[in-house]
Amino acid sequence: ASYADQTVTRGEGGETHQHAGGEVPVLTTQQGVPVADDQNSLRIGRRGPTALEDFHFREKIFHFDHERIPERVVHARGFGAHGFFEPYESLADITKADLFQRPGDKTPAFVRFSTVAGSKGSSDLARDVRGFAVKLYTQQGNWDLVGNNIPVFFIQDAIKFPDIIHAAKEEPDRGFPQAQTAHDNFWDFISLNPESMHMALWIMSDRTIPRSFRFMEGFGVHTFRLINAAGKSTFVKFHWKPKLGLQSVVWNEALKINGADPDFHRRDLWDAIQSGNFPEWELGLQLFDEVFAEQFAFDVLDATKIVPEEQVPVRRVGRLVLDRCVDNFFAETEQVAFCTQNIVPGIDFSNDPLLQGRNFSYLDTQLKRLGSPNFTYLPINAPKCPFHHFQQDGHMAFHNPKGRANYEPNSWGGAAGGPREAPDAGFTSYPSEEEGPKLRIRAETFADHYSQARQFYLSQAEIEQRHIAAAFTFELSKVETPAIRARMVAHLLNVDEVLAKAVAEGLRLKAMPAPAEPARPVDKSLKPSPALSIVGN
Ligand code: HEM
């Protein structure tokens, strides 16, 4: 008999055996031993117990037993694809980063989109932040731009990250809710941390539930530095602008889609790429120098603030195209390891205390998640330029240094001595001048928590404002503790009175609370910014 071009026989128990032959390879064990029968374990007698000596059975079950690795501590649910980045113009005047030197030069890229709070098996259309992580395999090493689809963040200092994530994920006693903002712990944290207010407005807005990844913006969030060949530094905010424009779904649609197809976003990306409909984003830069940065009313090191596009226009400098799905979800999308500290010559960090903390966290968690310091050799993580170093051993060391040299300086000349330093071409940190007493303190320039939240709200079209009020009402109506609801309304009074009243009415609050006391007066002169509204885009 033949089934899908393979010879098929039936065993004595009626089970199906498909045979190797022609182009069909022989099934082997991990040791390469050819397997005669993969349907039956080795028994004593026809109906007897299974024999311990069945090495094929034991190897197969052993490997299966160890298939799972820990899911990411955040951003567990994600979907990735391959593509490339190409600059439109040379940016040599502002950065020496190799990938920005020659227009049209293609740099391979891998992008993983994700949700933050839900587990690996949660639904795609949760009300949550989306990750937009880009790995660029440049000729001078890997640059990871690990961003989100929202340009600001909940907290200003990485030391609060475990707290916000604990509060956002399922509550520890009951183990729910999953991937939902609607619960007491989450809103308790937000209401006690006014610095979250700008981000809270964003996640209650239509920006939060994209129609698909293809219609979503990305942001590097922090202020970074670009460094040119002369050593000059320019501050930069990174943006990804979708060529298809910005589109979202409303909550009602999200609920139905989640019910009908919790894989809606990943299926959309897969289908688009497989049918040759390659999604594209333009890389946008907001560039400003330190003197200009001083003029802002906020601190450019504060990740809860945007740099308004009206003040610093976004310059579009290249495009990112996703044109290839992964061959294997686990090997690529699951094992990819993005890390904010992966930067290349021509790019540098700012002192943003959130970014500085992230630079520790990613590598640390990935050692746990991927199990070996050698995860950098996995094909999805390895640079695509030549790389040579003396790191050795550890679990899964299959690329140890060759020969005698595993340290330097050494006396073994030429190639036998192994790789050496490159003082001119190698990465050097921007020599910013830093001094001051060692303090555990937050600068007062971080203290305005409402002005940009208010500006964001006022920038929304009327229908978007109504959606924000409805989202706050719905989410806070799930909060059982009255004091938390009232505290949130007290904050909203500093954002917009109409919004606060709509939410208070929706929640049937008995009395309107007094506005929360702002640490800095709210700047009510900020003009709405059209760039922040989806309707306007
Ligand atoms: C994962 C973005 C803040 C720790 C991720 C991912 C993204 C992301 C996109 C998913 C990467 C992937 O697809 O594999 C951001 C942004 C932040 C932020 C934009 C703020 C602006 C933080 C902070 C910390 C942190 C403050 C810790 C101090 C982590 C960890 C992972 C992660 C541990 C899991 C990484 C892994 O297991 O591979 N983040 N994050 N993040 N983030 Fe963040």
TrEMBL record:
Heme binds at residues 72, 112, 161, 358, 362, 369. It is an enzyme of class 1 (oxidoreductase). One of its GO terms (cellular component) is cytosol. Keywords: Heme, Hydrogen peroxide, Iron, Metal-binding, Oxidoreductase, Peroxidase. Its cofactor is heme. GO terms for molecular function: catalase activity; heme binding; metal ion binding. Its EC number is 1.11.1.6. It catalyses: 2 H2O2 = O2 + 2 H2O. The active site is at 75, 148. Transmembrane segments: none annotated. Residues 1-31, 409-434 are annotated as: Disordered. Decomposes hydrogen peroxide into water and oxygen; serves to protect cells from the toxic effects of hydrogen peroxide. This is Catalase. It comes from Chelatococcus reniformis. The gene is catC.
